Amino acid sequence: PSAMREILLEVPKVYWSDIGGQKEIIQKLKESIEWPLQHPEAFSRLGIKPPKGILLYGPPGCSKTLMAKALATEAGLNFIAIKGPELFSKWVGESEKAVREVFRKARAASPSIIFFDEIDALTVKRGTNSDGGISVADRVLSQLLNELDGIEPLVNVTVVAATNRPDIIDNALLRPGRIDHILYVSPPDLSSRREIFRIQLKKMSCTMDVDIEELATETDGCSGAEIISICQDAALCAMDENLEAKEVRREHFMKALSSFTRRITPEMIQFYD
Ligand code: ATP
Question: Which of 136, 203, 206, 217 has a CA that sits 20 to 30 A from residue 236's CA?
Answer without folding.
Answer: 217
